[in-house]
Amino acid sequence: MKMFASSRLPAGSVARRRTVAAGAALLLTGGALAVGLNAANAAQPGHGQKGRPGHGAMATATPSSAADSDVASVVEAAQTFLATLGDDQLAEAQQEMTEENATAWSNLPCGGTCRPGVAFGDLDDDQLASAKNVLTLALGTGEDTGYAQASQLWLADDLLASDGGGGMPGGSAPTGTDVPTDLPTETPTETPTATATSTETATATASPTATGEATDDVYSNGYGSGRYYLAFLGEPTADGTWMLHFGGHHLAINLTYKNGEVTGTTPFFIGLEPTSWTADDGTEYAPMDDMHQGMLDMLNGLTEEETADAELGDSFSDVLLGPGSDGEFPSAKQGLAVSELTAEQQELVLEAMKPWVSVAADADAAELLEQYREELDETYVGWSGGTGLDTHADYVRIDGPGVWIEFVCQNGVVYSDQIHYHTVYRDHTHDYGGELSF
């Protein structure tokens, strides 16, 4: 089992000095991407507003203090959460920082068999609030990014669970639908030993009810907000190297910390089914609209000739660099060079990146975007299938010296009469904080 290197950091990356308090103040520097966590307030529950949870099991938690939302506060929140756990829960939530554990993430509804961590469904109310407090402090504060976006992914998965989610085709996304307000009390306990592939292969057994009503076995099909897992790889401290590892169906968040700073915010996988829905209270959810629209705006900003130049030679029914594909970046850039675009078009490319980069706390995302702006002249955009991003195998990619983002449309698994989204955000040098070699 390969352990993380203690000091290897990628060359040629952004460095930044930051003072971090953890009992005593320390002046820290780093040779890797050094970005500190900023205030990460949770989105407050709302009603009749787009993308704001109004009710349900995964309504947004309130962080301890916006003023303390830095790496030290994330460390403190993590330690507080771990202290609430029993021995068995602790063994699941805190594991060694090995390559095997770090790369054991998946987009599949495979529970704890393909990812480490303690399941949300195995936590009591106080533990769950403490876990969500960690995430509110660690993730971005945007309306449909960071913590707010992740919480809406859980709601979507509750719809899949309650609406027949074993992979049943032949239905439409529900309108005026309740989500379950309870969480499961059982979860798989197997420690992951391998990484699942990214293709969903569930088969039909029934038609969805489109009622969203919870049943006794609502989580038995692998979907649901209770089947998201939080793990800390290594010990959360202000002067060590560790990872916050969180995910479930259609979601994998990997944040790497070293010496009190964030050194990696990727890999970040996010997908969605259904792509939008309306709850009974009138709340409209479309947590990936900004991602979808940003890519559309970028493609629509190209001339006819540029669009032709950006077309890729291959077709893609899923992302290329999903789970199990670490380090498998293409050897050569493909598509259209962003250096050939106007300043206005280049700004659309940068805007398209923002929703993915904003998974990180706000200050971290801003610094990453500045790095990617500086690298635009060496960045390429490409597409295949179609540029409407509304049909199976419509695919778009942004590939730079650092940034790698893919967005693809797939036929629905539960709601088979519509497409759903798979996307992944990676960084050529900062995946897993640059601590692993592939």
From TrEMBL:
This is DUF3500 domain-containing protein. Keywords: Signal. The lineage of its organism: Bacteria, Bacillati, Actinomycetota, Actinomycetes, Kineosporiales. Residues 1-34 form the signal peptide. It holds the Pfam family DUF3500. It comes from the Bacteria. Residues 184-213 have a biased composition (Low complexity). Residues 43-63, 164-217 are annotated as: Disordered. InterPro entries: DUF3500. It comes from Kineosporia corallincola. The keyword Signal applies.
